[in-house]
Amino acid sequence: MILLLVSGTGCVIDSSNGETRIYVQEPLDEDEKEQFIREAQDLLGVPYEWGGDTREGMDCSGMIQYI
């Protein structure tokens, strides 16, 4: 886990179905990083709404789901 965090790789652990599965997200390349930043900047000014995931209002997890 420490190596994954140091390298910038994302990791999700899912045990919702009784089996533990680990999903690894490789680091974004430069084009993907720039696209992510552009999409996030496009959301500046969207109002905060707890549990929201639309341009009418969103919270932090809603922003990640939206992008």
Protein model, in words:
- The protein is α+β, with helices and mostly antiparallel strands.
- The chain is 39% helix and 21% strand.
- The strands form two sheets. The chain has a two-stranded antiparallel sheet with strand order 1-2. Strands 3-4 form a two-stranded antiparallel ribbon.
- A hairpin with a 6-residue loop joins strand 1 and strand 2.
- The chain is flat, with a radius of gyration of 15 Å.
- The chain starts with a helix and ends with a helix.
- The model is unreliable at 1-8 (pLDDT under 50).
Offer a few descriptive terms:
single chain; 67 residues; alpha+beta; 3 helices; 4 strands; flat; disordered N terminus
Question: How is the secondary structure organized here?
Answer:
Layout lengths: L1 H6 L2 E5 L6 E5 L4 H13 L10 E2 L2 E2 L1 H7 L1
Antiparallel strand pairs: 1-2, 3-4
Q: Which band does the percent of strand residues land in?
A: 15-25%
Outline type: flat
Report the mean per-residue pLDDT as an integer. Answer: 77
Query: Could you describe the largest sheet, including whether it forms a barrel?
Result: 2 strands, antiparallel
Which value, in Å, is the CA radius of gyration? 15 Å
What is the number of E strands? 4
